[in-house]
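Progress narrative, Year 2. Work on Prefoldin, alpha subunit from Polytolypa hystricis advanced from sequence curation to structure prediction during this period.
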Amino acid sequence: MSSSQGAAVSSDAGAPPGTEENHSNPALLRPRTVDIATLSVPQLRALQSRLSSELEHLTTSHAKLRSAQSKFRDCIKSINEGVVGSKSSGGGSGGGETDILVPLTSSLYVKGKLADREKVIVDIGTGFYVEKTTSKAVDFYTNKVKDLEANLRDLEKVVQGKSGNLRVVEDVLRQKVLSGEAGAAPSGSGGGGAS
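Result:
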């Protein structure tokens, strides 16, 4: 997606203001590399703001994926210790039913009875539930954890790239401001700045 290389930043955000792109041409949809040393201070600030916003969004997404992965691990643990574990420990009060606490939220539980230790109801997403055997349920959640791990690794690479790009932009911006280019930069609303 983006990579930093010296004072160049790859951008997939489109053309500079005031230019039109033909999005039906696949060659124009490829990321472009821009030499950020040629950008004016206002353009660098806009790029810095956009990169900061993207980085914040990606970091939030990373945290949400980690949270989902943790919940799937908790489901595996609940099945292994609560359903299968209660069968092997022989606990329960006659009739094959075992008293359990059913989580309604992360901090609210209600009493319940575990009637069937062979099958569980699995939330497969978007409000759909499916009955599965305990082994298939554990397999389902294990696959979810693995898929999320792969997505997290990919997202971490993107976050590292964006962080690197942001550092490069901030360095160039700092250099331009210190050299006094901020006051000398023309403030035009057109496409490219002065060279």
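Residues 4-178 form a domain with the Helix Hairpins fold (CATH 1.10.287.370). Residues 1-6, 11-23, 187-195 have pLDDT under 50 and may be disordered.
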